[in-house]
Amino acid sequence: MSNSIPENIVARIEALEIKASFADDAIDKLDQVIIRQQLQIDLLIKEVTDLSQSQSQSNTTTERNLRDELPPHF
C-alpha cells in the first residue's frame, strides 16, 4: 500500500469490502429462494387450475347426491 493513505482509511475500506461481499452472498442466496418459491407457486397454480377444471367437469357430468357425501358415522 502507499504510505500516503492513512491506516484507518484502509481498514474502513477493507471492512466495507467485507460487508459488500457478505451482502452479495446474501442477495445470491435470497435470489435462489425466490426462484424456488416461484417454481412452487407456478406448480400450485397449475394444480389448482387442474383441480378446478376436474371439479367443473365432474359437476357437469354427474348429479350430486348429498346422501353419498355424508361422513361414514351417519
State the gist of this model.
With 74 residues, the chain is mostly helical.
Order of helices and strands: H
Low-confidence stretches: none
What's the tally of helices?
1
| DSSP summary, beta strand count | 0
Structural class: mainly alpha
Provide the β-strand percentage band.
under 5%
- Radius of gyration, in Å, reads 30 Å
Distance between the termini: 85 Å
| Shape type | rod-shaped
User: Main beta sheet: strand number and arrangement?
Assistant: none
The helical percent reads: over 70%
Task: Round the mean pLDDT to the nearest integer and report it.
Answer: 88
How would you describe this structure to a colleague?
With 74 residues, the chain is mostly helical. The chain is built from one helix and no strands. The N and C termini lie far apart (85 Å). The mean pLDDT is 88.
Give descriptors for this structure:
74 residues
Which SSEs are present, and which pair or pack?
Blueprint: H1 7-61
